[in-house]
Design goal:
The chain has 234 residues and is an alpha+beta fold. The chain has a domain of 109 residues: HIT family, subunit A, CATH 3.30.428.10. Helix content is 35%, strand content 11%. The protein contains seven helices and five strands, in the order H-H-H-H-E-E-E-H-H-E-E-H. A five-stranded antiparallel beta sheet has the order 1-2-3-5-4, covered by helices on one side. Helix 2 packs antiparallel against helix 3. The protein is globular and about 50 Å long. About 25% of the residues have low confidence. InterPro entries: HINT, Histidine_triad_CS, Histidine_triad_HIT, HIT-like, HIT-like_sf.
């Protein structure tokens, strides 16, 4: 596994690493399939038991990514989702926390020591398709997990990051939240990395506010139908 970006790496490259840090194909065969092949070499009874176990695990391991088309079944690449594989145990990961709704794991290519991901156990390709109850469950664990990670890494702050959509840098289309521990001299980005100008109080800004409010007032509960193709009023 490549080491995390060094502190000497230029800042733009480190920011790009956030977008690519968790992109890792699942190449490991399901554990039950491996056990079945081994059992078949050692006798019929063991093979029968392993086959039953393999069938049960196959049901649990069937990623909803494989059935593209519905909101919960959008593929994250070739019908395979690395996060679904981690949830079912078909792919390895360092698990930090788990409950009925979500799982927290160490990022495979961390920006800083302790860089972690919170993922829902069910497959949702974006924030818009993730139920509010699932998002609430994830967000409710951020103080607990963020504090634990800060204390364990002896950091005094952390960033919470979500890349939602391809143009925002999302490369694994299974909703996930980054927790990135920060310290004074980590040389990652700061909140003032880019120059910022005061907001205009002119008509363009007023039109923007009106347009957003109009979309909000007419939005259905299924936010996945609210697309960027909404006509602009500014």
């Amino acid at each position: 596994m490549p080491p995390p970006p060094s502190l000497s790496t230029p800042a733009p490259e480190r920011r790009l690493a956030v977008l690519l840090s968790h992109f890792r194909p699942c190449l490991e065969a399901p554990r039950a399939t491996t056990r079945l092949a081994s059992a078949e070499r050692h006798g019929t009874a063991a093979a029968a038991e392993a086959e039953a176990e393999a069938e049960a695990e196959a049901e649990l391991s069937a990623s909803p990514c494989a059935a593209a088309g519905s909101g919960e079944a959008q593929s994250s690449g070739g019908g395979n989702c690395v996060f679904c594989s981690i949830v079912t145990g078909a792919a390895p990961a360092f698990k930090l926390y788990e409950d009925d709704e979500c799982l927290c794991i160490l990022d495979a290519k961390p920006l800083t020591t302790g860089h972690s991901l919170i993922i829902p156990k069910s497959h949702y390709p974006s924030l818009q398709t993730t139920p509010a109850t699932v998002l609430a469950a994830i967000c409710s664990k951020l103080p607990l997990l963020g504090t634990a990670i800060m204390k364990a890494t002896q950091c005094d702050a952390f960033n919470v990051l979500i890349n939602n959509g391809e143009k925002a840098g999302q490369v694994v289309f299974h909703t996930h939240v980054h927790i990135i521990p920060r310290s004074k001299d980590d040389n990652l980005w700061s909140s003032e990395t880019y120059s910022r100008n005061p907001i205009s109080h002119g008509q363009e800004t007023k039109n923007l506010v009106s347009s957003i409010k109009e979309v909000l007032s007419s939005s259905p509960e299924d936010y996945s139908t609210v697309m960027s193709s909404t006509p602009k009023a500014f």
